[in-house]
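Annex B. Sample input.
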Amino acid sequence: MTNTTELKKSALTDRQKDILQKFAALGSLVVLAFIFSLTSSAFFSVNNVMTIALQVTSIALLGIGATCVIITGGIDLSVGSVLALAGVIAAVAVKDYGAPVPLGMLLGILTGTACGWVNGVCITKLKLPPFIATLGMMLIARGVALQITGARAVSGLGDAFGELGNGSIMKIMTVGDDGFPNVSFPGIPYPVVLMVVIAFAVAFMLNRTILGRYIYAVGSNAEAASLSGVNVARVTTFTYILSGTLAGLTGCVLMSRLVTAQPNEGVGYELDAIASAVIGGVSLIGGVGTISGTAIGAFVIGILRNGLNMNGISAFAQQIIIGLVILITVWIDQLRNRQ
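Annex B, continued. Sample output.
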């Protein structure tokens, strides 16, 4: 009887720990928002909230892919470079070859898919460590993007190319007394809609499908998963393909926002993606993580940057602060794993 009671207490304690870990990032998000709302009256304005949401989309989309990869026990350092290559391919297809904008965007996304597939093959077939395989792809993709463009930006893409990154839904406009239109509500940007839809889709895949259970199983114990009939190589490759595809989509969205393809775009984005996942509770040793946690982690980074900008903190100091946040978060993750 005593042993049963102790087990129940232990289970309750573990459950409480899981709840605390899951909502720690959310608590940090609320605290940051509260602090910055006190330091700047414009922080909670509609325009600034939409600005934060737009800034977060890139981190969140890349973070979703990073989450799936890290859950399997891997890492993807190539997404920043793949992002740039995908955007360049889309822009070159539209400008130099006269492809319709949707087709150009599709080619960019498929470029990301192909890069992710190569990463997966190098890791599962050639048995390269994920760090080395994706580091190699990071250099190759960036080099190809620079080679294609001659290290110059691709501009003059037209308004249609900028629709994906700059368009919005539910925009409300009224005509003022002077006869000119006034924007009452700027609308929800297309990138934000994409982020929400993809986040829900991938969360459903992880939590409600057999593939999702396989991804967690591979990260928890690849050998045991293999003995249970899971095709570890196929599942692992899928996560890298997903990461590459989302990097390709992010590249197209970013270049569309700029209406210019920059081959140097996306430098350091892979670190933001990994940071958002880790802040959101994804364990670097694999087997643990949620998309909702990663989304919260992305907003933590986005709000931190936005609030620091509004308070006139230099970009260099921002790097130091975000670096400290990442170090503390990983340290907490290590403490959790030891327990």
